[in-house]
Amino acid sequence: MFPPMLLYLRAGKPESQRVGLWLPLFLVWLILLPIVLFVLALTILADVVLYLVGERYHHYTLLLLGCFGVLAATRGMTVRVYSSENVVDIDLV
Amino acid sequence: MSEDRARILNMLAAGKISAEEAERLLDALDSREPEKPAASVPAGPAIKGDPTPLLDALPKFLHVKVDSAEGEKVDVKVPLALVRSGLKLTSLIPSQAMDRINEQMAENGMSIDFSDFKPEDIDELIDALREMEVNIDGKDGEKVRVYCE
Predict the structure, then answer these.
(1) How many CB atoms lie within 10 A of CB A83?
(2) B27 with B47: CB under 8 angstroms?
(3) Chain A residues with CB inside 8 Å of B94's CB?
(4) Minimal CA–CA distance to A75: which of A24, A2, A4, A6?
(5) Contact (CB<8Å) A73/B84
(6) Quick one: pLDDT band at residue B96, thresholds 50, 70, 90?
(7) Which residues of chain A are at the B interface, by a Cβ-Cβ cutoff of 8 Å?
(8) Cβ distance B117 to B98 under 8 Å?
């Protein structure tokens, strides 16, 4: 399951043409990938050390992957706000 | 009236599916019945095969729609996969942190113990949300509708 790749934002006035903007979130994930891999390596190391020491909780890697799963689950979310002055559409694709 | 037909008509009445989708589902149900001789060649159903998996599928989105009296509208669609992932995440939170979360929730009036949620209960919870529908009509004309589909 992948995180949302694009954020589509459309805003404007009801009576005029709305301006649409595609934000490439996949570029943000690519930039964050080295940091995430570094943190993942740290959590794996921490889990191994905690397991060897005999600590009861040694699931920081699963916790990190769970957070990634929550981020991936936001795909398909839409927010639409219509008022007399503004119209805003947000889609996570 | 068969149970499947009644379920489709109830979903249409509740606004969970459109008239076109209801027609397609009913056509697919009819295609399961033995064919009767007809004067003209009928058109095939839009959905071939047994539509039961479509009807029994877990809801995928939580919809929140707000219409204010001034004409403002808010429509939010949240994937239920987010609920599923969030509940799975609660089972991975360290016990000390979970105790503090439960304390804070209780102080704010929500006495829910997230450590009681089990991943195997998630599908049952989401399936139960299928029938959930909240309709609020305010005295000033505002409307709030919350449902899953």
Answers:
(1) 15
(2) yes
(3) 57
(4) A4
(5) yes
(6) confident
(7) 1, 57, 59, 62-63, 66-67, 69-70, 72-84
(8) no
Question: Which helix or strand (DSSP H or E) is residue A35 part of?
Answer: helix A25-53
Q: Tokens 């992948």 label which residue?
A: A2
- Check pLDDT > 60 for residue B58: yes
At B41, list the tokens.
């060649």
pTM for the model stands at 0.65
Mean pLDDT calculated for residue range A22-49 = 93
Torsion of CA B127, B130, B136, B141, to 10 degrees: 140
Q: Say what percent of chain B tops pLDDT 90.
A: 11
Alpha helices per DSSP H over chain B = 3-13, 19-32, 52-56, 80-90, 95-107, 122-129
Distance from CA of B41 to the nearest CA of A (A): 40
Nearest-neighbour CA in chain B from A89: distance (Å): 9
For chain B, percent of residues with pLDDT exceeding 70: 77
Residue numbers of B between 43 and 62 with CB closer than 8 Å to A: 60-61
For tokens 């007399």, name the residue: A84
**For A3, nearest residue in chain B (alpha carbons):** B82
Which of A63-67, B11-15, B24-28, B88-92 is modeled with the greatest confidence? Answer: A63-67
Closest Cα to residue A26, out of A5, A8, A3, A9?
A5
For residue B6, how many other CB atoms are within 10 A of its CB?
10
Q: At which residue do the structure tokens 């669609």 appear? A: B77
CA dist B10 and B78 (Å) reads 23
